[in-house]
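Exercise: predict the fold of this chain.
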Amino acid sequence: MSGNKIQIYDTTLRDGSQGEGISFSVQDKILIAKKIDEIGFDFIEGGWPGANPKDVAFFEEAKKLKFRRAELVAFGSTCKARAKASEDENLRGLLGAGTAVITLFGKSWDLHVREVFRVELEENLRMISDSVRFLRSEGRRVIYDAEHFFDGYARNREYALKTLGAAADAGAETLVLCDTNGGTLPSAVAKAVSDVRAKLKTPLGIHTHNDCGMGIANAIAALEAGAVHVQGTVNGYGERCGNPDLLAIVANIELKLGSRCLEAGKLKELTEVSRYVSEVSNMLPAKNQPYVGASAFAHKGGVHIDAVKKNPETYEHIDPALVGNQRRSLVSEVGGRANVLLKAEELGVDLKKESPQAREIAEEVKRREYEGYQYEAAEASLELLMRKVMGKRKVFFTAGASVSQEKLGGEDPNVKARVEVKVDGKVQSKDAAGDGPVNALDKAFREALSVFYPAVKTVRLDDYKVRIVDSKSGTAAKVRVFIESTDGKRAWTTVGVSTNILEASWEALVEAYEFKLLRSS
């Protein structure tokens, strides 16, 4: 298949919206559609017009858009049993969406025809044929999604093929074979696609799900067997275990299969698209996501880091820049001097290869991680630790704080904090009230410190996470606090550890402001 053009069909706005925890607004769907069009996918499935008011509103808004490359697609089912396609409300709704392309799904598995539709097998064939033919008579291009195809093909091969034939004979331009339950293995997918391709001339597509962890593998198996159209969602969002991640599929098509699916230069935008859609979807990015995840090219073991530094090919299957990602080295208790040197280089810390301080830093990290600290996700604290061991950590201020909780419970707990900051012998004390003790500390600290350093006025606490380090100790357990801060231009994370949650929070907060001043000096 090397060199063939593969059609990329995105169903994030429809199938992806069925994922647990995802609820797109109309504006969310517009933003995601624009971003997907920018990267150059061929089709964007917008939803099922008529199924809910939100999808109807989306297609009305989408009529105002001018897509650069993608075809917007409306999705829906075949006509109802024993009803004329021309009189079917669902099909009329699809036409009303105003898209040039419509994806129609129908049943391929006789089990569903008999026990869900409860109609004769011939009637289902009629529903498929008449629906496709009607939409074609109205000037629409039709992609046919053969729902439950692989299960149907495994149990009643002859009938499953007849359903495809009905759609093809009626004018469908692509027949998409669907592993709707996500339970088929790659070998079975490849065999079925090869068999169908030998019997039908209509181009084939593939739509898989990830219920047995084979979504991407099944999609690739189908493409290797001759499919020329692939469906999926950005970041693998979708019902149950999700759809296959279309970003990984695209990267595999271009970098592993040697086929084309994007315009030149667009592959390096994959990571940006992943993070953009995560943000709009209000979903945390998966760090271990292939190709585009933050951990996809992160190295932690000392042996690995030493080898990658000499030759990246030793532990990286591609250059991360090809997909817009970057290499990261993680400093932890399982690493060593090589980790520290590479991380220092990434952070811009001048640490010489021959310096004994590299080993001192590695040992200090191991000691502190034994105490409960973790620096993989707190690189600002790591840089400050490095500079401290090297004797290059500038003292910008000293500070102390106290918190008073005058009332617990109720609708309006009264939390106050006092922070005292000392700079060059001068002292500033500020009081502040907040929604909680950390919020109050943050407000008072910023106000006091800004008297000496106005640059800190832009700093805001963006995220706050607490983890129990040793749950066996019960209420006396150590807690690890991560604070993510931002000044509107960049974000950084610091860490604190203590048996006292406020003490741990204060440690992370102090380092957050110290890091801001370090970067501003």
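Check your answer against the key: The CA atoms of residues 423 and 452 lie 7 Å apart.
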